[in-house]
Automatic annotation (TrEMBL):
Keywords recorded for this protein, A-Z: DNA-binding, Phosphoprotein, Transcription, Transcription regulation
Gene Ontology biological process terms in this record: phosphorelay signal transduction system; regulation of DNA-templated transcription
Protein name: CheY-like receiver domain-containing and HTH DNA-binding domain-containing response regulator
HTH luxR-type domain ranges (all copies): 146-211
Origin superkingdom: Bacteria
All residue ranges annotated as the Response regulatory domain in the record: 3-119
Modified-residue entries (4-aspartylphosphate), positions: D54
Record GO terms (molecular function): DNA binding
Organism in which the protein naturally occurs: Gaiella occulta
């Protein structure tokens, strides 16, 4: 059973999400919060698998709430919800440890699918939205910040990281590099461990911030 915490300051929005998830087998709404402070408290108390986190909430915004919820690998995973696909706060939330984000007007099945993906350790990296946002804010963040751990990656792991940052799936990466999907998964696991990252979404952020991938690259 995937336990979900709904964090949104609009009761009608929470009610809509609750109705959608109530009809889904294997998913249960564990609790609801109407501000960031309550979201953090309930995440610690209820230990849900996934937190649907609104960005703009009173008392504590979604960025800081995400940062306080995601403290280690055992923490609940956060799916950020936003009204605008280029909301400047979303980029901060990804850096704070969110596993991905979704527009509030996304189709119901996309919401459910995102919850299932994130609950099982995946990340929601939709090239059509997430990549555009990261590229936009990579342009504004000054000179590249290249972490020393990047030098520990093998040449093939760097290739995989570049393709991950461009939004490629494991299958697409496998076809591009002429290797098996299992090999791609192994490379991804190794580079995440070496860079001390939780998931692919954080890897995308590092790739852009370090200058390994630049806005507009294909």
């Amino acid at each position: 059973m995937i336990r979900v915490l709904l964090a949104d300051d609009q009761s009608l929005v929470r009610a809509g999400f609750r109705m959608i998830l109530k009809a889904e087998p294997g998913i249960k709404v564990a609790g609801e919060a109407d501000d960031g402070v309550e979201a953090v408290a309930l995440a610690r108390q209820l230990r849900p698998d996934v937190v649907l986190m609104d960005i703009r909430m009173p008392l504590l915004d979604g960025i800081e709430a995400t940062r306080q919820v995601v403290v280690d690998e055992t923490s609940p995973r956060v799916l950020v919800l936003t009204t605008f696909d280029l909301d400047e706060y979303v980029y901060g939330a990804l850096r704070a440890g969110a596993s991905g984000f979704l527009l509030k007007d996304a189709p119901e099945q996309q919401l459910v699918s995102a919850i299932r993906v994130i609950a099982t350790g995946g990340s929601l990296f939709a090239p059509s939205v997430t990549r555009r946002l990261i590229e936009e804010f990579a342009r504004r963040n000054g000179p590249p910040l290249r972490p020393p751990t990047l030098e520990t990656l093998t040449a093939r792991e760097v290739d995989v990281l570049r393709l991950v940052a461009r939004g490629s799936t494991n299958a697409e990466i496998a076809a591009e590099l002429v290797v098996s999907e299992h090999t791609v998964k192994t490379h991804v696991a190794h580079l995440l461990r070496k860079l001390d990252l939780r998931d692919r979404t954080q890897a995308v952020v590092v790739a852009y911030e370090s200058g390994l991938v630049r806005p507009g690259d294909r």
